[in-house]
Every structure is written in C-alpha cells, then in structure tokens.
C-alpha cells in the first residue's frame, strides 16, 4: 500500500461504506509512474465467514499496476441491525448500522 498516492490516508467517511469502487477525490496520482489515470480493481475476493460477508480487493494503477491500497468491506447482521464497515487507505474508514425493523428502536423518542 502506498501513502504517496493519496491525499489523506484512511480519511473518515462517516457512514459511507463502499463494497465496490474507488474514492478518486482522495487520489493524487501514482507515485511510481507519475500519472493520474483510472484506478483498477484487482484480486477481488468475497468470503462468507460465519455469517459475516468480507469483500477485499486491491486498487492498482492502470498504467504500471502499482498497488495503491487494499480495500476491505464487511457486512453482517447483529441482533436486529445490519452492520457495515469499510477500511481502505484510498477510500477511507467508515461504519454504519441500519435496523432491519420497520421502526428503528435507536431513533424512537422516549415518551417520558
């Protein structure tokens, strides 16, 4: 992984978890070939580990195939919530939790 190819290493992305794609606003260009072009996705692997879906892939330079960053995305269901996480030097770090119920208990206002 290469910190020289990105503006900010592991930027905070709030609750934006990408299972595919690249955050090109954070890409300054390839430090190896000195070009700023498309970023390819290679070595994509999807695994299911005891109910947790894990997707990993590499962001690589289109021209010289220099590895810019390794992307990891996870999805799982915990209790009544869908849990998402993302960790990538290029795309950033984020996590999100969404209720599978029609009314999210965390968002309900107490009556008293």
From TrEMBL:
Keyword Magnesium (UniProt): no
InterPro entries: Churchill_sf, Transcrpt_activator_Churchill
GO biological process, one term: fibroblast growth factor receptor signaling pathway
Keyword hit for Ribosomal protein: no
Molecular function GO terms recorded: zinc ion binding
Residue ranges of the TM segments: none
Pfam families per record: Churchill (PF06573)
Keywords: Activator, Developmental protein, Metal-binding, Transcription, Transcription regulation, Zinc
Domain of life, source organism: Eukaryota
Protein family membership: Belongs to the Churchill family.
Protein name: Protein Churchill
Organism of provenance: Podarcis lilfordi (Lilford's wall lizard)
């Amino acid at each position: 992984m290469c910190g020289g190819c990105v503006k900010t290493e592991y930027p905070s992305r709030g609750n934006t978890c990408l299972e595919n794609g690249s955050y090109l606003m954070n890409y300054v260009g390839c430090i190896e070939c000195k070009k700023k072009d498309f970023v390819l996705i290679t070595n994509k692997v999807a695994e299911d580990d005891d109910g947790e879906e894990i997707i990993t892939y590499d962001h690589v330079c289109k021209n010289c195939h220099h590895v810019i960053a390794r992307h990891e995305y996870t999805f799982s269901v915990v209790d009544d919530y869908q849990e998402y996480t993302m960790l990538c030097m290029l795309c950033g770090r984020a996590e999100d939790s969404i209720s599978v119920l029609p009314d999210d208990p965390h968002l309900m206002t107490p009556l008293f």
